[in-house]
């Protein structure tokens, strides 16, 4: 029992908890979408509720150093606009048309997109392991789409999922930038505030449908009040997920924490099965394993490159280990 408590309190245990609660977002959101909520409304309520809860802790962390917000306003703006609002809106639109597992697998193509972008922009061919990981993930994508199967995948939903992946790529680039002047909790809270404001503004001017519902939602075999799904989406899938993710990244370092975050895909599929009765087909599950395997190969190659850089420059290891204290949030 003591060992179990110690594991849960450790950085690794917290990282797994973070992935588990992040993985609930698609299920909570879909239960709301099926009762008449629009994706824009679900995202706006999610971001607003989480921003209100995290606002006081963020102010405490700032300790009156308001210049940190002024000095980093562009980072916070881009983080909130693209990494928070855009990523979640596109993911929820994908969930409205696809199963939760397939939507998240499409979003997790982000690391492969980063490899391709760096290859094109630098004109430097990636190392063999990275190239193999990219090819493996692309092969997995083909299986996930199951183009020849009896269950047809919604093409518009696929585009939404790919758009979420592009936003996640930008999210990676924003949060991976070394920044000692902006605490992670302040960045997360600021991004949530920006994202919430943007969502309400675009809804107010009519650019985005904002439809709400107070009808009961279905979670597993239970019919629950609408506020149960909303509360789960805000408290579990956003506040607890963000805070535990930050704690895990600080304890483990961004590289190890990002490896553990891959379990979010597995948790999302499990939650969708338990709460929505959704389970991707066997071909899609195989494709999902290939995508995750490809991402793992890319990350392993990245770790090897970091170790080689650290041997040349010992300072590099410390910098690379904390280059991304705020872990990316797929969707969720």
Spatial extent as radius of gyration = 19 Å
Strand content: under 5%
Give the biggest beta sheet: 2 strands, antiparallel
**Helix and strand run:** HHHHHHHHHHHEEHHHHH
Give the strand order, joined by hyphens, for the main sheet: 1-2
Task: Enumerate the spans where pLDDT stays under 50 for 5 or more consecutive residues.
Answer: 315-331
So how many helices?
Answer: 16
The class by helix and strand makeup works out as mainly alpha
CA-CA gap between termini = 32 Å
Name the helicity range.
over 70%
How many strand units?
2
The shape is globular
- Arithmetic mean of pLDDT: 79
Describe this structure as you would to a colleague.
By secondary structure, the protein is an all-alpha fold. 76% of the residues lie in helices and 2% in strands. The longest helix is centred in the C-terminal third of the chain and has 31 residues. The two termini are 32 Å apart.
């Amino acid at each position: 029992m003591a060992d179990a408590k110690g594991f849960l309190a450790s950085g690794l245990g917290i990282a797994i908890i973070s992935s588990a609660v992040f993985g609930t977002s698609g299920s909570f959101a879909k239960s709301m979408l099926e009762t008449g909520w629009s994706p824009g409304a679900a995202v706006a309520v999610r971001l607003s509720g989480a921003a209100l809860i995290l606002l006081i802790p963020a102010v405490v962390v700032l300790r009156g150093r308001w210049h940190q917000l002024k000095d980093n306003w562009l980072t916070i703006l881009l983080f909130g606009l693209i990494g928070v609002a855009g990523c979640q809106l596109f993911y929820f639109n994908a969930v409205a048309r696809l199963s939760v597992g397939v939507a998240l697998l499409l979003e997790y193509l982000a690391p492969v997109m980063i490899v391709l972008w760096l290859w094109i922009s630098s004109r430097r061919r990636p190392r063999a392991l990275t190239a193999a990981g990219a090819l493996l993930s692309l092969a997995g994508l083909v299986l996930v789409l199951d183009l020849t199967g009896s269950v047809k995948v919604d093409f518009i939903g696929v585009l939404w999922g790919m758009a979420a992946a592009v936003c996640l790529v930008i999210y990676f680039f924003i949060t991976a930038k070394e920044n000692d002047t902006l605490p992670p909790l302040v960045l997360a809270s600021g991004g949530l505030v920006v994202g919430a404001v943007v969502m309400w503004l675009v809804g107010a001017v009519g650019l985005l449908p904002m439809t709400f519902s107070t009808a009961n939602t279905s979670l597993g075999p239970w019919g629950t009040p609408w506020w149960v799904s909303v509360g789960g989406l805000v408290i579990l899938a956003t506040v607890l997920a963000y805070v535990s993710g930050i704690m895990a990244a600080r304890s483990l370092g961004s590289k190890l924490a990002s490896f553990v975050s891959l379990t979010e895909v597995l948790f999302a599929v499990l939650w969708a099965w338990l709460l929505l009765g959704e389970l991707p087909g066997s071909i899609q599950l195989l494709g999902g394993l290939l995508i995750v395997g490809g991402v793992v190969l890319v990350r392993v190659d990245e770790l090897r490159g970091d170790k080689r850089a650290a041997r040349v420059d010992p300072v590099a290891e410390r910098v690379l280990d904390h280059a991304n204290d705020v872990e990316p949030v797929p969707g969720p």
